[in-house]
């Protein structure tokens, strides 16, 4: 039993000996629980039916989502935009819905162009990010064969929370099966490289991508940005579609394409997937657009660009350069790996030859990879299909630049206080001046401390990649390939034991009450459980068990709602508010209920009383009733006893006089009088003052009347 003494009760202790307050305080240590936090899931080019209670035009995407976040009634926000072909510009429309079918797993979403549908969620995780949405949802889709963990959760929200709370690996995607309550966590997503990744149809299962990842966690390995050549669509067509039909998340002005790329790489307010560079800045106009979308996010993929028609107003000039993030196949250097590990990792079956130029004279120390400042360099070369990647790691932060000798302006990277950086040398063109002879590509790289001046402390490396271009004979044959063994994981969480608690109007647990006291009858189970409960066959019995009264019948309906109303849900608990009663021959009342379990919330029973229908949470889900009409092993009977006194009983020593009651033997009955409030004391004082004033006024009138009467003169 828990109770706290308010300041009002403490102040009443100083009002004199007439006021006595008995206060019992019990300190209980409760387990710390993570409160649910608000988050959003987003669907791209999908729409769900719902009840729109407010709509407004020309809001930004983030203003629309922020409005729904602040509105308690808002369950989902539908943000759409249309392209004005004469401008061309985007005209937006934001709709707030207080009821959405997106929460119904059987609801079928409708395809809708230029639509972002955002659904409000409650996730129990401390890792919910401060971004507009935490997950991207793709309905009725899964990725086969890339599972890392399989768990069972009663709700989709619990599954998404498990992804955010995962510590063993970086959870990049989630698949939730609504019918079987299977939750699959994976460190791969649609952009993962090194294996064949494809979304396939799976009715009743949704695919989610974690958008709370840091930019460095977006890919398993290195993350880079490339153009649309691999999509099979011309760069001009893709850039034109993106400029019109991608919603711009952020715009800024930059001096070069590399600066726009860097802005996308380090963006933290949302996970930047692509950017559009519009060329050199013109006045105060923005020339860099950042997007959370890429072609993987679109339901139709690259074919979206092919089906796009040119706008009505088209000058025939390229709109700009479009780049998307790509996850490379090359694994990064793991912590604790020996130097040179990256040299052994390659994306192509090529021979790698990294040599030093014997004609260079600036290597004066014994360790050729260290300079006179004490900085040592671990330089590795990765031979790609279109470039040579020079990866540099240092033992202390490096400030300066790395560039191709002779191409310091067109092939360079500025390094600011970093111990790991990379320069990509293009194989074609004159930007990096890479030389090639019969499959051997070479270049010279300079590590320079000063931004302008080259000194003796700088390092120069000659790098070379050799590609084997010779012809080979290959043979194709058939061999049996067995599918990977399927691992079956069965989870059966134990049903927690329920308990009955009877609380007074101050939410204190009581054991002794008076007839007519308003009480809260509660059947509780722990909050952190996937189960729900329903109660039926509840009986109130006299302590001697000679008299009983059924308050809830076998269907879960109250037999007499005027005495004991039906149950309502309060979280995982059931509660009913009633007035205390007792039996004629006994003060002790024992309550006994039959409790069953549901997986998730239970379906209420439809009851009737005096020609009116109402619901009572006393029946399990309909499918459970149809599947098993007999009493199952999950039945559990619980009971609770309470002492109900008549008015004035606390003044009688009936416990000693009545040998049939054994409360005096094993219970200590404490009658706690409610402390008078300041309001009641003030009302009593005002009443007494008015009565005294009335008494004085009566006396005054009496004597005045007597004084005013003329005295008789006796002759």
TrEMBL record:
Record key words, sorted? Membrane, Transmembrane, Transmembrane helix
- What residue intervals traverse the membrane? 681-703
Question: Known SUPFAM superfamilies for this protein?
Answer: Hairpin loop containing domain-like
Protein name per the record: Trynity
Give the superkingdom in one word. Eukaryota
* Stretches assigned to the ZP domain: 382-614
The species this protein belongs to is Drosophila erecta (Fruit fly)
Q: Which InterPro entries match?
A: Celegans_DevNeuronal_Protein (IPR052774), CUT_N (IPR056953), Pan_app (IPR003609), ZP_dom (IPR001507)
Apple domain boundaries: 21-120, 129-212, 219-310
Keyword tRNA processing carried by entry: no
Q: Which PANTHER family match?
A: FI18240P1-RELATED (PTHR47327), RE15579P (PTHR47327:SF1)
Q: Name one GO biological process term.
A: anatomical structure morphogenesis
Q: Report the Gene3D superfamilies cross-referenced here.
A: Hepatocyte Growth Factor (3.50.4.10)
Fetch the PROSITE patterns from UniProt.
PAN, ZP_2
